């Protein structure tokens, strides 16, 4: 049995926006034509796995949703409301296995973000200079 947990918490504060501060290299790009939508299907085979995504839309907004359809998680980019403009979406999607998720949680708890302690110490020393 696959349990789904999607938290709906409200608007994202503008202080969390990173578009102008962080350069992200996305794995894929696609165009969602005006008046249409595109969806990506991912089958989660093992309990405890997590679907993680990140995306950006160039120049304008796009609708986005996640839903379950016949035992598959579906990510949907929705441009059906746009009469004139196609949208270019860059995205990365990962399925994290439960052991990968656990190691990432441990790294975050230790404050290393998956980096070795030597790298973190070197970065700390450089930031002090």
From TrEMBL:
Task: Quote the biased-composition stretches of kind Polar residues, using this chain's numbering.
Answer: 107-121
Which superkingdom? Eukaryota
Residue ranges of region Disordered? Answer: 107-129
Concerning PANTHER family, the annotation shows: SEC14 RELATED PROTEIN (PTHR23324), SEC14-LIKE PROTEIN 2 (PTHR23324:SF83)
The name this protein carries in UniProt is Uncharacterized protein
Q: What is the lineage of its organism?
A: Eukaryota, Metazoa, Chordata, Craniata, Vertebrata
């Amino acid at each position: 049995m696959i349990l789904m947990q999607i938290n709906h918490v409200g608007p994202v504060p503008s202080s969390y926006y990173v578009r102008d501060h962080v350069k992200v290299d996305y794995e894929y790009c696609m165009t969602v034509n005006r008046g249409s939508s595109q969806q990506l299907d991912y089958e989660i085979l093992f309990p405890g796995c997590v679907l993680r995504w990140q995306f950006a839309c160039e120049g304008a907004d796009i609708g986005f949703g996640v839903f379950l359809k016949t035992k598959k998680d579906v990510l949907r980019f929705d441009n059906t409301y746009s009469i004139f403009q196609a949208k270019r979406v860059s995205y990365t999607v990962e399925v994290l296995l439960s052991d990968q998720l656990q190691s990432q949680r441990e790294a975050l708890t230790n404050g290393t973000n998956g980096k070795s302690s030597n790298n973190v110490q070197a970065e700390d020393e450089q930031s002090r200079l």
